[in-house]
Amino acid sequence: MARLYEHQGKDLLASVGINVPRGQCASNAAAAFEAARSIEKPVVLKAQVWATGRFKAGGILLAKDPEEAAHKGEQLLGKTIKGLVVEKLLVEEQLDAERELYIGVIVSNSHKIKGPVLLFSSEGGSSIEEVSKRNPERIASLEVDYLKGVQLEDASRLVAGVTFEGNSPSEAVKRSLAKAICQVYQAFVQYDARSIEVNPLILTKDQRLVAADCHATIDDNSVFRHPELGIALPRDMERPPTELEKKAWKIENDDYRGTGYFAQMAPVIEGPGWLGFHGIGGGGAMLGASAFVAQGFKIANYADTSGDPPASKIYSVIQCILSQPVDGYVLMGACLANQEQWHHAHALVKAFREQAARRPGFPVIMLIGGNKEKEAHQIVRDGFKDLPLRWELYGREYIYDTDFISERVRTLVTDYQMEKKS
To answer: I want to staple 142 with a disulfide (CB 3.0 to 4.6 A). Which of 70, 118, 249, 383 is the partner?
Structure first.
Protein backbone atom coordinates (compact mmCIF):
# COMPACT_ATOMS: atom_id res chain seq x y z
CA MET A 1 0.00 0.00 0.00
CA ALA A 2 1.06 3.57 -0.66
CA ARG A 3 0.36 6.08 2.07
CA LEU A 4 -0.72 9.60 1.22
CA TYR A 5 0.04 12.69 3.22
CA GLU A 6 -2.89 14.53 4.74
CA HIS A 7 -2.84 17.26 2.08
CA GLN A 8 -2.93 14.61 -0.66
CA GLY A 9 -5.86 12.85 0.98
CA LYS A 10 -7.74 16.14 1.17
CA ASP A 11 -7.09 16.72 -2.53
CA LEU A 12 -8.83 13.39 -3.18
CA LEU A 13 -11.80 14.46 -1.09
CA ALA A 14 -12.03 17.88 -2.73
CA SER A 15 -12.05 16.26 -6.17
CA VAL A 16 -15.34 14.49 -5.32
CA GLY A 17 -16.97 17.57 -3.82
CA ILE A 18 -16.24 17.28 -0.09
CA ASN A 19 -15.43 20.56 1.67
CA VAL A 20 -11.87 20.85 3.01
CA PRO A 21 -10.35 23.76 4.96
CA ARG A 22 -8.72 26.57 3.00
CA GLY A 23 -5.00 25.96 3.15
CA GLN A 24 -1.61 25.63 1.49
CA CYS A 25 1.51 23.53 1.98
CA ALA A 26 4.68 25.23 3.17
CA SER A 27 8.27 24.03 3.35
CA ASN A 28 9.76 27.12 5.01
CA ALA A 29 8.75 29.89 7.40
CA ALA A 30 8.25 32.45 4.64
CA ALA A 31 5.81 30.16 2.84
CA ALA A 32 3.94 29.59 6.12
CA PHE A 33 3.67 33.37 6.53
CA GLU A 34 2.26 33.81 3.01
CA ALA A 35 -0.18 30.94 3.45
CA ALA A 36 -1.54 32.41 6.68
CA ARG A 37 -1.78 35.88 5.13
CA SER A 38 -3.81 34.54 2.19
CA ILE A 39 -6.22 32.75 4.54
CA GLU A 40 -6.84 35.96 6.51
CA LYS A 41 -7.89 34.29 9.76
CA PRO A 42 -6.28 32.21 12.54
CA VAL A 43 -4.60 29.09 11.18
CA VAL A 44 -3.44 25.65 12.24
CA LEU A 45 -0.01 24.35 11.19
CA LYS A 46 0.07 20.57 10.73
CA ALA A 47 3.24 18.54 10.26
CA GLN A 48 2.94 16.40 7.12
CA VAL A 49 4.26 13.08 8.40
CA TRP A 50 2.84 9.55 8.19
CA ALA A 51 1.83 9.33 11.83
CA THR A 52 -1.28 9.53 13.95
CA GLY A 53 -1.45 11.35 17.27
CA ARG A 54 0.38 14.37 15.89
CA PHE A 55 -1.29 16.84 18.25
CA LYS A 56 -0.07 15.08 21.40
CA ALA A 57 3.37 14.71 19.81
CA GLY A 58 3.64 18.45 19.18
CA GLY A 59 3.09 18.19 15.43
CA ILE A 60 0.04 20.49 15.29
CA LEU A 61 0.27 24.13 16.37
CA LEU A 62 -2.14 27.07 16.29
CA ALA A 63 -1.32 30.59 15.13
CA LYS A 64 -3.47 33.71 15.35
CA ASP A 65 -1.70 35.73 12.59
CA PRO A 66 0.92 35.37 9.79
CA GLU A 67 3.82 36.41 12.03
CA GLU A 68 3.00 33.71 14.56
CA ALA A 69 2.50 31.22 11.72
CA ALA A 70 6.01 31.94 10.45
CA HIS A 71 7.45 31.56 13.96
CA LYS A 72 5.59 28.33 14.69
CA GLY A 73 6.40 27.02 11.20
CA GLU A 74 10.09 27.51 11.88
CA GLN A 75 9.66 25.53 15.11
CA LEU A 76 7.97 22.61 13.35
CA LEU A 77 10.07 22.30 10.20
CA GLY A 78 13.00 20.00 10.79
CA LYS A 79 11.50 18.72 14.02
CA THR A 80 11.24 14.96 14.55
CA ILE A 81 7.68 13.75 15.19
CA LYS A 82 7.38 10.09 16.18
CA GLY A 83 10.69 9.37 14.49
CA LEU A 84 9.79 11.25 11.30
CA VAL A 85 11.45 14.49 10.19
CA VAL A 86 9.00 17.25 9.28
CA GLU A 87 9.83 18.56 5.81
CA LYS A 88 6.46 20.09 4.93
CA LEU A 89 3.57 21.76 6.75
CA LEU A 90 -0.09 22.14 5.89
CA VAL A 91 -1.20 25.64 6.88
CA GLU A 92 -4.97 25.91 6.91
CA GLU A 93 -7.83 27.85 8.46
CA GLN A 94 -9.01 27.07 11.97
CA LEU A 95 -12.56 25.75 12.07
CA ASP A 96 -15.34 26.64 14.51
CA ALA A 97 -16.47 23.11 15.36
CA GLU A 98 -19.83 22.20 16.75
CA ARG A 99 -19.46 18.44 16.37
CA GLU A 100 -16.80 15.91 15.26
CA LEU A 101 -17.76 12.86 13.19
CA TYR A 102 -16.04 10.03 11.34
CA ILE A 103 -16.39 8.43 7.88
CA GLY A 104 -14.14 5.61 6.74
CA VAL A 105 -13.84 2.94 4.06
CA ILE A 106 -11.43 0.06 4.54
CA VAL A 107 -10.80 -3.20 2.70
CA SER A 108 -11.51 -6.14 5.00
CA ASN A 109 -9.44 -9.26 4.41
CA SER A 110 -11.78 -11.36 6.54
CA HIS A 111 -12.69 -14.56 4.69
CA LYS A 112 -16.32 -13.70 5.34
CA ILE A 113 -16.08 -10.27 3.69
CA LYS A 114 -13.10 -9.85 1.35
CA GLY A 115 -14.22 -6.40 0.28
CA PRO A 116 -14.86 -2.80 1.31
CA VAL A 117 -16.48 -1.96 4.64
CA LEU A 118 -18.02 1.47 5.12
CA LEU A 119 -17.98 2.95 8.62
CA PHE A 120 -19.77 5.96 10.06
CA SER A 121 -19.44 7.25 13.60
CA SER A 122 -21.19 10.14 15.29
CA GLU A 123 -18.08 10.52 17.45
CA GLY A 124 -14.94 11.61 15.65
CA GLY A 125 -11.53 12.73 16.79
CA SER A 126 -10.70 9.41 18.47
CA SER A 127 -9.68 6.19 16.75
CA ILE A 128 -12.62 4.08 15.64
CA GLU A 129 -11.37 1.25 17.86
CA GLU A 130 -11.57 3.47 20.96
CA VAL A 131 -15.09 4.58 20.08
CA SER A 132 -16.24 0.99 19.51
CA LYS A 133 -15.12 0.08 23.04
CA ARG A 134 -16.47 3.19 24.70
CA ASN A 135 -19.69 3.90 22.78
CA PRO A 136 -20.46 1.12 20.27
CA GLU A 137 -23.94 2.55 19.69
CA ARG A 138 -22.31 5.50 17.94
CA ILE A 139 -20.89 3.37 15.11
CA ALA A 140 -22.65 1.85 12.11
CA SER A 141 -21.07 -0.21 9.32
CA LEU A 142 -21.96 -1.56 5.90
CA GLU A 143 -20.34 -4.41 3.98
CA VAL A 144 -20.36 -2.96 0.50
CA ASP A 145 -21.41 -4.91 -2.56
CA TYR A 146 -18.65 -3.70 -4.85
CA LEU A 147 -20.73 -4.17 -8.01
CA LYS A 148 -23.62 -2.18 -6.55
CA GLY A 149 -21.62 0.49 -4.75
CA VAL A 150 -23.03 2.81 -2.09
CA GLN A 151 -26.37 4.49 -2.74
CA LEU A 152 -27.80 7.47 -0.92
CA GLU A 153 -30.34 5.28 0.87
CA ASP A 154 -27.50 3.04 2.15
CA ALA A 155 -25.70 6.06 3.57
CA SER A 156 -28.92 7.40 5.11
CA ARG A 157 -29.42 4.11 6.95
CA LEU A 158 -25.89 4.38 8.37
CA VAL A 159 -26.61 7.88 9.69
CA ALA A 160 -29.93 6.73 11.14
CA GLY A 161 -28.28 3.73 12.78
CA VAL A 162 -26.17 5.65 15.31
CA THR A 163 -26.87 7.72 18.39
CA PHE A 164 -25.54 11.25 18.76
CA GLU A 165 -24.15 12.97 21.81
CA GLY A 166 -26.48 15.73 22.93
CA ASN A 167 -29.08 16.96 20.50
CA SER A 168 -29.41 15.09 17.24
CA PRO A 169 -28.37 17.05 14.11
CA SER A 170 -31.06 18.54 11.89
CA GLU A 171 -32.53 16.55 9.02
CA ALA A 172 -30.68 18.82 6.59
CA VAL A 173 -27.35 17.96 8.27
CA LYS A 174 -28.20 14.26 8.19
CA ARG A 175 -28.87 14.48 4.46
CA SER A 176 -25.52 16.22 4.03
CA LEU A 177 -23.85 13.45 6.04
CA ALA A 178 -25.39 10.79 3.81
CA LYS A 179 -24.13 12.63 0.74
CA ALA A 180 -20.64 12.95 2.27
CA ILE A 181 -20.57 9.20 2.96
CA CYS A 182 -21.34 8.51 -0.70
CA GLN A 183 -18.65 10.97 -1.78
CA VAL A 184 -16.00 9.33 0.43
CA TYR A 185 -16.85 5.99 -1.13
CA GLN A 186 -16.66 7.58 -4.57
CA ALA A 187 -13.11 8.76 -3.80
CA PHE A 188 -12.26 5.28 -2.50
CA VAL A 189 -13.24 3.70 -5.82
CA GLN A 190 -11.99 6.47 -8.08
CA TYR A 191 -8.48 6.42 -6.61
CA ASP A 192 -8.13 2.63 -6.10
CA ALA A 193 -7.79 3.11 -2.35
CA ARG A 194 -7.22 0.47 0.27
CA SER A 195 -8.50 2.80 2.96
CA ILE A 196 -9.78 6.36 3.40
CA GLU A 197 -10.56 7.75 6.83
CA VAL A 198 -11.97 11.22 7.37
CA ASN A 199 -11.39 11.85 11.06
CA PRO A 200 -12.63 14.21 12.17
CA LEU A 201 -15.30 15.36 9.78
CA ILE A 202 -16.28 18.67 11.33
CA LEU A 203 -19.79 20.04 11.56
CA THR A 204 -19.11 23.75 11.90
CA LYS A 205 -21.23 26.13 13.91
CA ASP A 206 -22.72 27.46 10.67
CA GLN A 207 -23.77 23.86 9.84
CA ARG A 208 -21.19 23.06 7.15
CA LEU A 209 -19.42 19.70 6.91
CA VAL A 210 -15.66 20.05 6.46
CA ALA A 211 -13.01 17.31 6.37
CA ALA A 212 -10.51 18.43 9.01
CA ASP A 213 -8.19 15.45 8.51
CA CYS A 214 -7.80 12.57 6.08
CA HIS A 215 -5.71 9.40 6.12
CA ALA A 216 -5.62 7.46 2.85
CA THR A 217 -3.69 4.56 1.36
CA ILE A 218 -3.69 3.59 -2.31
CA ASP A 219 -3.34 0.05 -3.66
CA ASP A 220 0.30 -0.18 -4.74
CA ASN A 221 -0.66 -2.10 -7.88
CA SER A 222 -2.74 0.89 -9.02
CA VAL A 223 -0.23 3.67 -8.45
CA PHE A 224 0.65 3.78 -12.16
CA ARG A 225 -2.95 4.88 -12.80
CA HIS A 226 -2.50 7.99 -10.65
CA PRO A 227 0.72 9.82 -11.61
CA GLU A 228 -0.88 13.03 -10.33
CA LEU A 229 -0.31 11.79 -6.77
CA GLY A 230 3.48 11.84 -7.23
CA ILE A 231 4.09 8.66 -5.23
CA ALA A 232 7.82 7.91 -5.28
CA LEU A 233 7.62 4.47 -3.70
CA PRO A 234 4.25 2.71 -3.35
CA ARG A 235 4.79 0.86 -0.09
CA ASP A 236 3.19 1.12 3.32
CA MET A 237 6.04 2.69 5.30
CA GLU A 238 6.10 4.75 8.47
CA ARG A 239 8.63 7.13 6.91
CA PRO A 240 9.55 8.62 3.53
CA PRO A 241 11.70 6.31 1.35
CA THR A 242 15.47 6.64 1.43
CA GLU A 243 17.39 7.38 -1.76
CA LEU A 244 18.55 3.75 -1.87
CA GLU A 245 14.96 2.52 -1.53
CA LYS A 246 13.89 4.77 -4.39
CA LYS A 247 16.67 3.29 -6.50
CA ALA A 248 15.70 -0.24 -5.50
CA TRP A 249 12.04 0.36 -6.34
CA LYS A 250 12.99 0.96 -9.98
CA ILE A 251 14.14 -2.67 -10.12
CA GLU A 252 10.69 -3.85 -9.13
CA ASN A 253 8.85 -1.15 -11.02
CA ASP A 254 10.37 -2.02 -14.40
CA ASP A 255 10.50 -5.81 -14.11
CA TYR A 256 7.46 -7.85 -13.10
CA ARG A 257 9.16 -11.26 -13.16
CA GLY A 258 9.14 -12.50 -9.58
CA THR A 259 9.78 -10.29 -6.55
CA GLY A 260 12.65 -7.89 -6.05
CA TYR A 261 11.84 -6.28 -2.71
CA PHE A 262 14.31 -4.12 -0.78
CA ALA A 263 13.74 -1.98 2.32
CA GLN A 264 16.23 -0.45 4.72
CA MET A 265 15.65 -1.19 8.38
CA ALA A 266 17.58 1.92 9.43
CA PRO A 267 18.05 5.07 7.33
CA VAL A 268 21.50 5.63 8.85
CA ILE A 269 23.99 2.80 9.36
CA GLU A 270 26.78 3.62 11.79
CA GLY A 271 29.23 1.45 13.70
CA PRO A 272 30.00 -2.26 13.36
CA GLY A 273 27.74 -5.31 13.44
CA TRP A 274 25.38 -4.58 10.55
CA LEU A 275 24.35 -7.40 8.22
CA GLY A 276 23.10 -7.15 4.67
CA PHE A 277 20.13 -9.52 4.79
CA HIS A 278 18.69 -11.31 1.76
CA GLY A 279 15.76 -13.70 1.98
CA ILE A 280 13.89 -15.91 -0.45
CA GLY A 281 10.32 -16.13 0.79
CA GLY A 282 9.14 -15.11 4.22
CA GLY A 283 8.97 -17.80 6.92
CA GLY A 284 12.40 -19.40 6.95
CA ALA A 285 14.09 -16.12 6.09
CA MET A 286 12.51 -14.36 9.06
CA LEU A 287 13.52 -17.18 11.38
CA GLY A 288 17.08 -16.56 10.25
CA ALA A 289 16.80 -12.80 10.79
CA SER A 290 15.56 -13.41 14.35
CA ALA A 291 18.51 -15.70 15.03
CA PHE A 292 20.99 -13.07 13.81
CA VAL A 293 19.44 -10.39 16.01
CA ALA A 294 19.71 -12.80 18.96
CA GLN A 295 23.43 -13.02 18.20
CA GLY A 296 23.74 -9.25 18.59
CA PHE A 297 23.71 -8.31 14.91
CA LYS A 298 21.77 -5.41 13.44
CA ILE A 299 19.85 -6.01 10.23
CA ALA A 300 20.61 -3.21 7.78
CA ASN A 301 17.90 -4.15 5.31
CA TYR A 302 15.33 -6.73 4.38
CA ALA A 303 15.40 -8.00 0.80
CA ASP A 304 13.27 -10.69 -0.81
CA THR A 305 13.75 -12.29 -4.24
CA SER A 306 11.06 -14.95 -4.33
CA GLY A 307 8.62 -15.93 -7.08
CA ASP A 308 11.37 -17.12 -9.44
CA PRO A 309 12.85 -13.79 -10.61
CA PRO A 310 15.59 -13.81 -13.27
CA ALA A 311 19.27 -13.56 -12.34
CA SER A 312 19.41 -9.96 -13.58
CA LYS A 313 16.78 -8.84 -11.08
CA ILE A 314 18.39 -10.75 -8.20
CA TYR A 315 21.77 -9.25 -9.11
CA SER A 316 20.33 -5.72 -8.92
CA VAL A 317 18.90 -6.41 -5.45
CA ILE A 318 22.27 -7.77 -4.25
CA GLN A 319 23.92 -4.60 -5.53
CA CYS A 320 21.57 -2.53 -3.36
CA ILE A 321 22.37 -4.66 -0.32
CA LEU A 322 26.12 -4.32 -0.85
CA SER A 323 25.94 -0.57 -1.36
CA GLN A 324 25.42 -0.30 2.42
CA PRO A 325 28.37 -0.24 4.88
CA VAL A 326 27.73 -3.75 6.22
CA ASP A 327 30.06 -6.29 7.85
CA GLY A 328 28.61 -9.29 6.09
CA TYR A 329 26.04 -10.61 3.61
CA VAL A 330 23.61 -13.42 4.39
CA LEU A 331 21.31 -15.19 1.94
CA MET A 332 18.58 -17.25 3.61
CA GLY A 333 17.33 -19.13 0.56
CA ALA A 334 15.01 -21.39 2.53
CA CYS A 335 12.72 -21.99 -0.43
CA LEU A 336 11.48 -25.47 -1.34
CA ALA A 337 8.69 -24.14 -3.55
CA ASN A 338 8.53 -23.96 -7.32
CA GLN A 339 11.62 -21.79 -7.82
CA GLU A 340 14.75 -22.66 -9.74
CA GLN A 341 17.63 -21.64 -7.52
CA TRP A 342 20.34 -21.53 -10.14
CA HIS A 343 19.15 -18.00 -11.03
CA HIS A 344 20.29 -16.93 -7.56
CA ALA A 345 23.57 -18.72 -8.03
CA HIS A 346 24.35 -16.88 -11.27
CA ALA A 347 23.45 -13.54 -9.66
CA LEU A 348 25.62 -14.22 -6.60
CA VAL A 349 28.64 -15.14 -8.70
CA LYS A 350 28.38 -12.03 -10.88
CA ALA A 351 27.81 -9.67 -7.94
CA PHE A 352 30.65 -10.98 -5.75
CA ARG A 353 33.14 -11.38 -8.55
CA GLU A 354 32.69 -7.64 -9.05
CA GLN A 355 32.85 -6.86 -5.32
CA ALA A 356 35.53 -9.22 -4.00
CA ALA A 357 38.60 -7.13 -4.82
CA ARG A 358 37.13 -4.14 -2.97
CA ARG A 359 36.11 -6.27 0.04
CA PRO A 360 38.92 -8.70 0.85
CA GLY A 361 37.87 -11.19 3.50
CA PHE A 362 34.23 -10.04 3.42
CA PRO A 363 31.85 -12.65 4.95
CA VAL A 364 29.31 -14.21 2.58
CA ILE A 365 27.02 -16.90 4.01
CA MET A 366 24.60 -18.53 1.59
CA LEU A 367 21.79 -20.98 2.32
CA ILE A 368 20.29 -22.23 -0.94
CA GLY A 369 17.72 -25.00 -0.91
CA GLY A 370 15.04 -25.98 -3.39
CA ASN A 371 14.70 -26.79 -7.06
CA LYS A 372 18.03 -27.01 -8.92
CA GLU A 373 19.78 -26.91 -5.56
CA LYS A 374 22.59 -29.22 -6.65
CA GLU A 375 23.22 -27.27 -9.83
CA ALA A 376 23.03 -23.94 -7.96
CA HIS A 377 25.60 -25.08 -5.43
CA GLN A 378 27.97 -26.14 -8.21
CA ILE A 379 27.64 -22.77 -9.92
CA VAL A 380 28.46 -20.99 -6.65
CA ARG A 381 31.44 -23.23 -5.87
CA ASP A 382 32.91 -22.77 -9.34
CA GLY A 383 32.33 -19.01 -9.30
CA PHE A 384 33.59 -18.37 -5.77
CA LYS A 385 36.56 -20.76 -5.58
CA ASP A 386 39.24 -18.14 -6.33
CA LEU A 387 37.61 -15.14 -4.65
CA PRO A 388 39.30 -13.52 -1.59
CA LEU A 389 36.15 -13.79 0.51
CA ARG A 390 35.08 -15.61 3.66
CA TRP A 391 32.28 -17.60 2.10
CA GLU A 392 30.29 -20.63 3.14
CA LEU A 393 27.46 -22.42 1.34
CA TYR A 394 24.72 -24.58 2.87
CA GLY A 395 21.76 -26.55 1.54
CA ARG A 396 18.28 -27.67 2.52
CA GLU A 397 19.41 -29.69 5.51
CA TYR A 398 20.16 -26.40 7.32
CA ILE A 399 16.89 -24.63 6.55
CA TYR A 400 15.61 -24.96 10.14
CA ASP A 401 19.02 -24.95 11.82
CA THR A 402 19.15 -21.19 12.11
CA ASP A 403 21.25 -21.32 15.27
CA PHE A 404 24.02 -23.05 13.37
CA ILE A 405 23.87 -20.53 10.52
CA SER A 406 23.87 -17.59 12.92
CA GLU A 407 26.89 -19.01 14.78
CA ARG A 408 28.76 -19.34 11.50
CA VAL A 409 27.87 -15.76 10.67
CA ARG A 410 29.15 -14.66 14.08
CA THR A 411 32.48 -16.43 13.55
CA LEU A 412 33.08 -15.10 10.05
CA VAL A 413 32.06 -11.54 10.88
CA THR A 414 34.20 -11.46 14.03
CA ASP A 415 37.24 -12.65 12.06
CA TYR A 416 36.54 -10.05 9.37
CA GLN A 417 36.23 -7.22 11.89
CA MET A 418 39.47 -8.22 13.61
CA GLU A 419 41.26 -8.36 10.26
CA LYS A 420 40.08 -4.87 9.35
CA LYS A 421 41.44 -3.50 12.64
CA SER A 422 44.87 -5.09 12.24
So the answer is: 118
